[in-house]
Structures are given as C-alpha cells and as structure tokens.
Design brief:
The chain has eight helices and seven strands; from the N terminus they run H-H-H-E-E-H-E-E-H-E-H-H-H-E-E. It is an alpha/beta fold. Helix 2 packs parallel to helix 4.
C-alpha cells in the first residue's frame, strides 16, 4: 500500500507551507470567514500544514483533517496541538476518504479542489461523509468569469500543474460543487493574489453549499 508515495511533493510541500504561512494578512480573514458559524464534527480535506485549525469556532466538537502529503501532514499535526478545538490529523486521499458515510456535520475544502486529480470524485466523497442537510464550506481559486483572463488561465494550465503539486488554475469549482449534489447557499467572488505575480490564480471564492 503506497498511499504516501502517490502524493509526495517534497519541494512543493515546503514551498507551499512557507508561502501559506507568509501569505498576506488578508488570507487570515479569509480563513476566519470560511469557518465562522460551524459546529459539530467537521472533516477538512487537504488540510495542508493546518493553517485553518486556529480559526475553528468553539462550537466545533472535532475536526478530522485529511492530508496525504507526508511533510504537510507532519506540520498539520504540530498545528493540531495548538488548535482551540480537538483536531485529529489522518493520512488519506480526497478521492477515497478513510471515513464512514454521513458521519460529519460539515466538510471544509480550502485551496485543495484545484489540485485533486478528479473534482467530481473528491466531491462525491465529501458528499458521502457529510450527513444529509450538512454543509460544505469552500475557499478556492477558480476559473475567471472574464473571457480574456480565463484564456490566460487555460494557457497557464498547460504547464503550471507540473510545478505546483497538480494545481489547476482553470477549474469551475462552484459549478462542480453544484453538479456533485450540493445546493449553493452563498458564493462570494473576489480577487486575491497570495503572491503578486500569480495572476492565473487571482479569482477566488468563499462560500457554503448544503448537502442535499
């Protein structure tokens, strides 16, 4: 069983962890807004180095954080020890979550649906483990609504995933969420560049969808 070897990006993982930890202060507010109002048991897919953990509200009784990349998972385990709510970090892949059906009140996808191999499969897995009526919270960079910008994202996608841990800058993630059987409740679009020259990942969304 070579689950870790299938998601092993030692250089990119370190760059991601450094970049995420040194991102503009605005991103801290994004993470706080993403998680506000959550309660009960939560599954976070692609937890990275655990930067969301500090922002979970007290009404959350447990976070199960799934992260397949070994270096990032080790950093997430460190962050879990400082979290204000109980966090359990586990190895696992988004397209085959090691979790039971309908065991969570909510799911969180934060800057991860750009890089899963297949969005439909990952979202189907999230839908499986979230109870009926539960929420999916998402914070992602997405395909632009501006045709010129979108064309630039499609061009960038020809080479960008090879250097960015499989990240795709041109995914219509809100559309994929609705196609997976979630009812969109809110979806705020805004421009944000975590690094000034990364124009291809400037369009972002924060939102919530209901598991039908």
């Amino acid at each position: 069983m070579a689950r870790e070897a299938s998601v092993h990006h030692p250089v990119f993982a370190r760059l991601f962890a450094w970049g995420a930890s040194n991102a503009p202060a605005e991103q801290t507010d994004h993470r706080r807004r993403l998680l506000e109002g959550l309660s009960g048991r939560v599954v976070e897919v692609g937890a990275g180095n655990g930067l969301n953990f500090a922002h979970y509200p007290a009404a959350v009784t447990e976070v199960v954080a799934v992260e397949p990349e070994p270096y990032l998972r080790s950093k997430a385990e460190e962050a879990a020890g400082r979290a204000p709510v109980p966090v359990r970090v586990v190895d696992g892949l988004a397209d085959s979550l090691p979790l039971q059906d309908a065991e969570f009140d909510a799911g969180v996808a934060s800057l991860v649906l750009c890089s899963v191999p297949d969005q439909a499969t990952a979202l189907a897995e999230l839908r499986r483990v979230i109870r009926s009526g539960g929420e999916l919270r998402f914070y992602e960079h997405v395909l632009s609504h501006d045709p010129d910008a979108a064309r630039g994202q499609h061009r960038t996608d020809r080479w960008w995933p090879r250097f960015s841990g499989g990240c795709h800058p041109n995914r219509d993630t809100p559309g994929a969420i609705e196609a997976a059987g979630f009812e969109m409740e809110r979806c705020e679009r805004f421009a944000f560049r975590p690094v000034f020259f990364l124009k291809a990942i400037e369009p972002h969304v924060i939102g919530a969808a209901r598991r039908t």
